[in-house]
Specification:
Blueprint (H helix, E strand, L loop, with lengths): L7 E4 L5 E3 L2 E3 L1 E5 L7 H10 L1 H11 L1 E4 L7 H11 L14 E3 L2 E3 L9 E4 L11 E8 L9 E3 H11 L1 H10 L1 E7 L13 H5 L4 H11 L1 E5 L5 E8 L3 E2 L7 E2 L4 H4 L5 E5 L7 H13 L11 E5 L3 E5 L7 E7 L1
Parallel strand pairs: 4-5
Antiparallel strand pairs: 1-4, 2-3, 5-17, 6-7, 7-19, 8-18, 9-17, 9-19, 10-18, 11-13, 11-16, 12-13, 14-15
Helix pairs in contact: 1-3, 4-5
């Protein structure tokens, strides 16, 4: 679908890439200089809902830039005007609820790199869209890089056809250990009580079952979660039949608190994981945050992460079905 909307004009940002004829991210700016206020933006989104969603799916990422979006309350208005249902985040990242549908992004130390991932990739239901708002841009670093997932699959199939076939046929099995209480000093430090929203072990087990998890209670009060089998790749409707690298083998393989293996217990070869990490980095797309930026990601098509950053940096998030 060609770009055509009187309420926006196409801009550019440093770091954008052309991938199979699609610009990632597609930068949309006010159609006129005097229409950069929140009310104009909300009206434009309201009048072009279907078109705007098609742009997100077509380009995988849309960056609204140049609009005067100030805070969590205004960001929430943007999220709600789009009309997509909310989905509660489940995962290890420490987050704080800010306002209505708005949360902090991962509160782990800014000095650490948050590895590329599809949000909630391991669960039966994951967000279709991840929406990020930059309230305070970092003085240095702190980018949110994205990776077209299908490009990773293409290269992995080309370089490791047998390994990909084996992982695809057997499926994947992941484990992750959560502490009993939150640890804000770790980007994976969310405790199981916070993650499941209860301190009742029986209720935790009930909710874990709904997520498709097995559990193992640990002597130190922690909780080991086991998920599998899970797909290596997936094809989603409306995305040109592209085979997405819909897993987290690099992010969880061989870590102190997590593991990624084939579902029958077979180890994933170290050289395969290492080269996959290199491919993901090679295909990454970087841009610098500006104050007021709102970034819409197609979570089924893009991996995303966070570069190490100097403080301050404040990026808020909402996740939608």
């Amino acid at each position: 679908m060609e770009f055509s909307c009187k309420h926006f004009k196409v801009g550019k940002c440093e770091g954008e890439k052309l991938v199979d004829g699609e610009t990632i991210p597609l930068v949309l700016q006010p159609s006129e200089a005097n229409k950069n206020d929140l009310e104009s933006l909300l009206l434009a989104l309201k009048n072009n809902k279907e078109w705007f969603e098609q742009m997100i799916i077509k380009n995988s990422a849309v960056l609204l830039r140049g609009f005067d979006v100030k805070n969590a309350e205004e960001f929430n208005e943007i999220v709600e005007i789009c009309g997509w249902e909310d989905i509660r985040y489940v995962g290890p990242a420490p987050r704080t609820h800010i306002y209505k549908r708005v949360w902090t992004a991962n509160e782990g130390p800014l000095s650490e790199f948050i590895y590329y991932h599809h949000e909630m990739v391991l669960f039966k239901e994951c967000p279709l869209k991840v929406i990020l708002f930059c309230e305070i841009p970092p003085p240095e670093g702190g980018q949110t890089p994205v990776v077209p997932s299908f490009k990773v699959t293409e290269k992995m199939v080309e370089e490791f056809p047998e390994a990909v076939k084996e992982m695809e046929e057997k499926g994947l099995r992941y484990t992750f250990t959560a502490p009993g209480k939150n640890n804000s000093g770790s980007m994976r430090g969310r405790g199981w009580e916070d993650a499941f929203g209860t301190s009742d072990p029986q209720e935790v087990e009930k909710r874990a079952k709904a997520f498709g998890m097995e559990l193992e209670w640990l002597p130190d009060g922690g909780l080991k979660t086991i998920l599998g089998p899970r797909n290596l790749t997936k094809v989603f409707e409306g995305r040109k039949g592209r085979r997405m690298w819909f897993n987290t083998i690099v992010g969880m393989h061989g870590r102190e608190i997590s593991s990624a293996k084939m579902a029958d217990g077979t180890e994933i070869p170290e050289n395969v994981v290492k080269r996959c990490a290199e491919i993901i980095e090679e295909e990454s797309i970087q841009f610098k945050w500006e104050k007021g930026d709102v970034l819409f990601l197609d979570n089924l098509a893009l991996l995303h992460g966070r570069r190490p950053s100097l403080p301050p940096r404040k990026v808020l998030v909402a996740t939608c079905k």
